[in-house]
Amino acid sequence: MKDSRHLGHPYGLHRVREPQGVLPQPAWKIDADPSIYENELCIEVERLNIDSASFTQLKEEAQGDIIRIKEKIWNIIQERGKMHNPVTGSGGMLIGRVASIGSHYPNHEIQVGMKIATLVSLTLTPLSLEAIHQVDLQTGQVEVSGKAILFATAPYAILPDDLPERVTLAALDVCGAPLQTKRLVKPNQRVLVMGAGGKSGLLCLYQAWKEAGKEGQVIALEANEQACREIQNLNIAHEVIQVDATNPIAVHEVVDRVTHGKLADLTINCVNVPNTELSAILATRDQGLIYFFSMAVQFTAAALGAEGVGKDVQMMIGNGYGQGHAELTLNIFRESPKIKELFVSRYASR
Ligand code: NAP
Q1: Distance 235 CA to ligand 1 centre (A)
Q2: Are residues 245 and 145 located together in one domain of the fold?
Q3: 138 lies in the same domain as 191
Q4: Has residue 102 been placed in a domain?
Q5: What pTM was estimated for this model as a whole?
Q6: What is the pLDDT of residues 305-317, one digit of tens each?
Q7: Which domain does 306 fall in, by range?
Q8: What atom in ligand 1 is closest to the CA of residue 296?
Q9: Same domain, residue pair 219 and 290
Q10: Which domain CATH number covers 241?
């Protein structure tokens, strides 16, 4: 232990190594020493959920080779003290057991031995690994041994006992998206979800279906054929369309057709690959709103793309945090056994 002496900065400034003076998220390197400051908490890490944009990039760069993916994950964490993919800039989150709690850690409900999921990005979570045991190529979940640190301000969730851990991990990584969907969708709106068959896409679809009501129209766009079938079986979208979200002309055409020229009032972008900004922009009506949850979205492409096609749309960055986001997301599984079943079959059956 660091003789349990000082309090760290509540936002983790004390662990920033390079460059000095910035916060842990934008820092290149942070100190992942597992000995805690008095207001920190240490987790014995069991599993990482690598952010989908990051995992897709790592998988592509390693041409699907598990050994090379392991090496890349290992090297990033060794070099930066956190799982912060330098290409995509994104992270993910983790689950593990509480190993030690500083005497000034602000939350008193938590105890050593409890299993928790961090609700703060891996791009700012100090992480030191002892081993990477297994990488799941389908889900981006990685079984590891190691230690992580939570700063005094970092949110977390105690794992519920009515859901498989791997389902909880998959869902909590994206739990900001359904919360924002609940806030943004108004009754009777036309809501478009891009990348609708993935984790965040499905949760957003469900929430949009609930909020838009009988007179609303929920449109699911997805490239993957199997995922389109799965959405259809869930009965949470009026239209399920298989289309490539990186093709703006094709996306505009189908959305124009199914909305009879009105386009979407609200577009939620949950795709895990780059170059989808213009599709979202063209599919949304003037004065409509685009919620860019995807981490593969580029600010410049969105801002200049909208200007370039003369589209007066509002655009919103997908904050991963919102009050009550974890509870709302886990409740979706309690409300919809079919969505729970699908997540279990994808994320907890192997
Ligand atoms: P996911 O589960 O991998 O889902 C992405 C979906 O998009 C998949 O169904 C995928 O199909 C589909 N897709 C891929 N390429 C497509 C294309 N060209 N056209 C249409 N659909 C396509 O991802 P997720 O975990 O929900 O994450 C979605 C995005 O949110 C990612 O970019 C992730 O990095 C980001 N994210 C943001 C935050 C935040 O705080 N804002 C937090 C977590 C994650 P396939 O399965 O066939 O690839």
Answers
A1: 20
A2: no
A3: no
A4: yes
A5: 0.94
A6: 999 999 999 999 9
A7: 176-342
A8: 32
A9: yes
A10: 3.40.50.720
